[in-house]
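call fold(seq) -> C-alpha cells
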Amino acid sequence: MCFERIDRLVSIEKFCFQSWDDRYSKGIWAALGLWEDQIDTVRDLSSAGDSDMIPAMDYLGSAKWLPYVTGRTLGEAMQKLEALLAAIPQDQLNRESQWANLVSKAVEALSDATSGRSCYGDKRPDLLDDLPATFELAVEKAALAESWPTGSPNITEHNYGKFSPNPSGSIEEYRDFILTPEEIAKI
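ret:
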C-alpha cells in the first residue's frame, strides 16, 4: 500500500496525522489537520456522549472533502483518506491552500460551537449548518460569504428531526421546548 499524498502532507507540508479506534464501533479513524488541536477536536467529539457526538459527526460527515474518515482497519481508513485526497485538486494539498483554509475554518467553527458546551449541561452547543458536500461547492460558498462556515441557530430537520419552528433563526424563545436527555428518559 502506498499513501503518497498522506506521506507528503505529513512529511513535507507538516500536517499532523492521528488515528484512533472509534468509541461507538464505527471503526478506525484516520485524520489529518494543520495542527494537532484540529484533530483533537474531532477525536474528542467522536467519542463524546451521543447528544454531542451525533450532531458533530453529522456536521463533519456532510462534507466529503474533510480529511476525517473511518475504516474497518487502519489500512482501510488510510486507503479511504488517500482516496479522498486524490479527489481534491492536487495543487490544493498544501498548508497555504484554499482547501487547508476551508478545513481549518470548518473545524474551527465546530470547536467554537462546542467549546465548553454540552447537551448534558447548562450551556448547549451552538447548532451548525451542514457543510457543502464537495470541495467545489465549498469554494463557491466561501466566495459568497467571507465568514463561512459559521454557526446557525436554526433548528433543521437534519440536526433535530423537525423543521425550524422559528424562521428568524433564534431558538432562545424555544429553549423551554427542547428536551434534555433526562427529560426524554422520563417519557
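Confidence is low (pLDDT under 50) at residues 116-126, 150-177.
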